Structure formats: structure tokens, C-alpha cells
Amino acid sequence: MTSFWWVNHKQTHKQEINGRYIWSPKKNANGAVNNSYDNMHKTSVGDIVFSFADAQIKAIGTVIERCKTATKPSEFGDKGENWDDEGWLVKVDWSMLKSPFRVKDNIALLLPHLSDKYAPIQSNGNGNQGCYLASISTELAEVLFKLSNADIGQYVVDNLWQEEELAIQEIEQDTSIDQATKKQLVDSRRGQGKYRRNLALFEKKCRVTGITDKRFLIASHSKPWCKSDNNEKLDGNNGFFFSPHVDKLYDNGWMTFKENGDAVFADNTIVDALNQWNITFPINIGKLNFEQKSYLAYHREYVFKQQAT
């Protein structure tokens, strides 16, 4: 189940947004426990975070990796000089809002949904001193989405990302696996998920069927995984989200695409299959950037032709 969070990070807003994370110390400077710091390790992959800085909600993000211990980011410079160097790091895929809004201007809408304890803001709309990350209700999140003119669907993560993190957690907790093997297994699982996340920066749906629900989409590679170097394996330009039946055609080289996006088929049996799947013709997958065209050229040359001959 998705949880919602509010982060007050005026001091480090720029660094955390650009770095795609949030970071906090584990305790107050005097060593006391801080509820909002403890909230860091309560976050889960798929949770949604609202960014509050300079009196505005400026960005919304999705948690993409589990909380982990990490040293204070060097880019903070002299900010938080009293903070311990060891703290909590949560990776967040941030999106800046096209229409940021001032909290004070909308406080009447927000107050009914604020908790009596550990609320991130005061009744006057100012941020609560000492509160970094606060849990907020679904009702408050709905108001924030409405005020930001943002679609919650944009921030809901692929279920496979969550499954990946759970699998990684199981590997890390398995005492029967030695550390070297654990690292190999974790790197492999995280690499698969990282490619899907990178691909999602460019692709929002299957370009052939129009399906947008990423639970039902395959992250295809134009230049196959086994032929790609480490950078190419994770490059979001190196592929598309496809519905499973379309992915089957593309992955096996039975279908490819020209630079202008027009589909090309290995033979007429592929056209027959697409007709039976009620795919609308002609098929054109739309505009492609330079890097996508380059990977597609590889697909046409080395994947499609091998199957067509």
C-alpha cells in the first residue's frame, strides 16, 4: 500500500532534488531521537513524497530504493554543520511541478487534514521547526495533488520495482549466502529494475498498443542485454515499453522500426498475427530521439535481419 510523506528541506532542497534523494541524520545534534528522522527508514519503494521549500510545494517524488545508512552528502557543503556525518538516505525520483503553489495561500484547505502531532507545518502555514519528514494522510495527499494539478498516476511505480526491492531484501537477509555472492545477486536484480526506471524517464506506454499500466508492460532492449556494455544495459534510450505480445515480436527480430517510426515486418505471418490481435495499421511509434535512433539502427542491422533471412 502506498504511503504519503511531506519533506521540509529548505536548506538542502536544491541538492536533494538534483541528486534524486532525501537525506537526514539519524538523531538530533544533542543525541535525542527525532520522529521525523525515524520516518526515513519507514518509507517503502513506491511511496510518494511532497517537497516543501521556500514556502511552496515545488516537487513530487516517488521512493525508488529502500532507506539505507549513508554519510552526509558532500554537496551539502556547510549546510547542517551540526548534523552527524552518518545518516539515512532514501532515493527519490523527483519531478518538479509546472505550477508550484504557496502553502499559506491554501492553508484553509490543508488544516482539516493535518495531524495534531508531528504535523509538517503550523496552522499559519510555516514549516514546523525540527520536522524533516512527516507522514501525511491519503486525504491530505489528495488535496495536494489537486492543488498541484498533478496526476497521481504519474507517480505510481511499477509493481516490479517493489518486487525487486523485496527480492533484494530477502537476499541481503539470507545468512546462507556469502557476501560476494550476495553482491552479485543484488547487483543483478537492481540492474534490471534500474533499467526499467531509466526507461520510464523516456517511455510512458506501449507505443503500439497504447497500454499505460506498467504492470503489463515489458522493458525491451533494442540492443540486446547480452550485446550491450554496462552503460548500454541501463540506458533508458536503449528500448521501449511494449505489451508482452509486441515485445515477443520485437525481441525476436520479427518486427522493427525505421527512423521515422514506421514498423517493418519479417514476413506476412507477422502482419497476420497483428491483425488477429486487432492492432491498428499502419503502425508508427512516433518521434524518436537521436540515441533511440542509434539503438534502433543496431536492432535493424543485427536483430531484425538475422530473423528475416
Number of helices: 10
Shape: globular
Question: Structural class of the secondary structure composition?
Answer: alpha+beta
Q: In angstroms, what is the radius of gyration?
A: 23 Å
Give the mean pLDDT: 88
CATH architectural category of the largest domain: Roll
Low-confidence region ranges: none
Q: How many domains?
A: 3
- The sequence of SSEs as H and E is EHEHEEEEHEHHHEHEHEEHH
Indicate the CATH class of the largest domain.
Answer: Alpha Beta
Largest beta-sheet details: 7 strands, mixed
Q: Going by CATH, what is the homologous superfamily of the largest domain?
A: ph1033 like domains
Tell me roughly what share of residues is in helical segments: 25-40%
In total, the number of strands is: 11
CATH topology of the largest domain: ph1033 like fold
Per DSSP, what share of the residues sits in E-state strands of 2 or more residues?
15-25%
Distance between the termini: 49 Å
Describe this protein's structure.
A hairpin with a 5-residue loop joins strand 10 (255-257) and strand 11 (263-265). The relative contact order is 0.10. This protein folds into 3 domains: 4-154, ph1033 like fold (Roll); 158-201; 204-308, no CATH class. With 309 residues, it is an alpha+beta fold. Helix content is 34%, strand content 20%. Strands 1, 2, 3, 4, 5, 6 and 7 form a 7-stranded mixed β-sheet that branches. It has helices spanning 13-19, 35-38, 107-110, 138-148, 159-173, 179-200, 230-234, 244-251, 268-276, 290-308; strands at 4-8, 21-25, 48-53, 56-63, 68-71, 86-102, 133-136, 218-221, 239-242, 255-257, 263-265.
